[in-house]
Amino acid sequence: MPEMATVEVSFTALPAHVRTARLVATAVARRSGVDEALLDEVRLAVGEACSRAVEAHRLYCPAEPVRIALTDSAGRFEVEVTDTGGAGRGDLTAADGITAAAEPGGSQRLEHGLGLAVIAGLADDVQISESPGGVSIRMSWPAVGLGR
Q: Would residue 2 count as lying in a domain?
């Protein structure tokens, strides 16, 4: 079967848009041939990654969109969630998640939490990279490439 083109979605960093991102990811996963039994895991992992990105953007760059790329390639369905909210923070490692926390004086910062551990438990394979441009979470699941 020919490789499916990448579906790209960007959305304003609002919690309400996370649901839409989950729905799009689930629909593309189904079309890519991801087993029905894994669709809840796709939905939950994408929701967690997008929620984390929305929080980072709301705190650091609310005008910048969160970006998602969904690809079916070589028997794998891959989702990459990229945020620019982490740009230059340098406080995220591949083993840690982040959550918002209040600092003295009422400001907020991001601190380590369980978000990425949850994603790692849901996705078949997870790769997290941090660059000066932000944080990228790449997740993948097996797909039979039905192209429905």
A: no
Q: Which two tokens stand for residue 6?
A: 């990448």
Average pLDDT taken over every residue of the chain: 80
Q: How many domains does the chain have?
A: 1
The dihedral region occupied by 73, where left means phi > 0, alpha psi between -120 and 50, and beta the remainder, is beta
The pLDDT tens digits of the residues spanning 22-81 come to 999 999 999 999 999 999 999 999 999 999 999 989 988 899 999 999 998 888 999 999
What pLDDT sits at residue 77?
95
Alpha-carbon distance of 132 to 28, in angstroms, equals 30
Domain enclosing residue 129, as ranges: 7-142
pLDDT for the residue 97: 41
